[in-house]
Amino acid sequence: MATSGFKHLVVVKFKEDAKVDEILKGLENLVSQIDSVKSFEWGEDNESHEMLRQGFTHAFSMTFENKDAYVSFTSHPLHVEFSAAFTAVIDKIVVMDFTVAAVKSPVVVAP
To answer: Are 6 and 70 in contact (CB under 8 A)?
Structure first.
């Protein structure tokens, strides 16, 4: 099994008064400015049963070349600044950081 980078996975439930659209725009802006972020995906859960979701609504996934690139990202001044705003609007959060074990690579579809 090959390794394929380092992943930062965040699952959150925002506070009721959170301006989620603004947070999402800020996050997209953040990752576009920091080269160590190789990919960024996010989604809002609208399919799972509430019992399984446990109140969590959004998932964010970032991929880095390796753990050192992730550590560099976490100490970047833009990330430090954004994290303070992000944390302020979070009701619940789960964070997982791990080396990716690539079992089946994504299929790249030609345009």
So the answer is: yes
* CA atoms of 90 and 71, how far apart (whole Å): 22
Three-class SS state of 19: coil
- Taking each helix axis from N to C terminus, what angle separates 20-33 and 77-88, rounded to the nearest 10 degrees? 170
C-alpha distance across the termini of the chain, in Å: 29
pTM listed for this prediction: 0.84
Q: Within the chain, which residues score under 70 in pLDDT?
A: 1-3, 106
Helices 67-75 + 77-88 axis angle, to 10: 70
Q: Domains, the chain, ranges and CATH?
A: 1-99 (3.30.70.100)
Element (H, E) at 94: strand 90-102
**8-state DSSP, 111:** -
